[in-house]
Amino acid sequence: xxxxxxxxxxxxxxxxxxxxxxxxxxxxxxxxxxxxxxxxxxxxxxxxxxxxxxxxxxxxxxxxxxxxxxxxxxxxxxxxxxxxxxxxxxxxxxxxxxxxxxxxxxxxxxxxxxxxxxxxxxxxxxxxxxxxxxxxxxxxxxxxxxxxxxxxxxxxxxxxxxxxxxxxxxxxxxxxxxxxxxxxxxxxxxxxxxxxxxxxxxxxxxxxxxxxxxxxxxxxxxxxxxxxxxxxxxxxxxxxxxxxxxxxxxxxxxxxxxxxxxxx
Length: 264
Prior knowledge:
By secondary structure, the chain is α/β, with parallel strands linked by helices. The protein contains 9 helices and 10 strands. Helix content is 43%, strand content 20%. A hairpin with a 3-residue loop joins strand 3 and strand 4.
């Protein structure tokens, strides 16, 4: 192992730490749906004591409790802002999240594994809003979403059309001649099917465009690239730009839903 290898591993760990911190802040914001007061000294004491007892190895208890005290302070500041929450399917960086930010730039966007999770969370009141793709110009209707829309009690209160630009991305150092597979959401694979065929890449369905890029960045499987937004990860992690032949003709329409019309 070289110095560069070690630094790459450190960079990967740093990215995971930041991702986990962001997830913790998201959960902290969601707790405001169930409590009236932001301050909860007893809960903070329990958390810090658990952290103190769990500290081991190179991380001593004084460092870990100081670190988590600052994390808790930041969490409370975010809770006090009263963010509106928007659920979307996929990982951070997904096209759905970009569409959500176009409609409400200052909202807290919450990733969900499945489209049904978005609907369930809005119906239960956990999220204020949800945003889902309903159709796109090359892939057609998004079947799973439209099936749920038929039966849901949620109301569509807004829609946004957004141009889509996919890129073929892979970790730095990848020999592009060895690429054999392209991971992405089924809609993205359908949109880029001609590009994949021309380049002899076998499409492999993944639950999300952003999720496919994230998994490749972390797992670095051989011979695999992802179709996703180029700006999704830093250039150090995913660097190869992809096909632009359909750039001006690919678009998606996103539906914005809430439990009641007056909540927008």
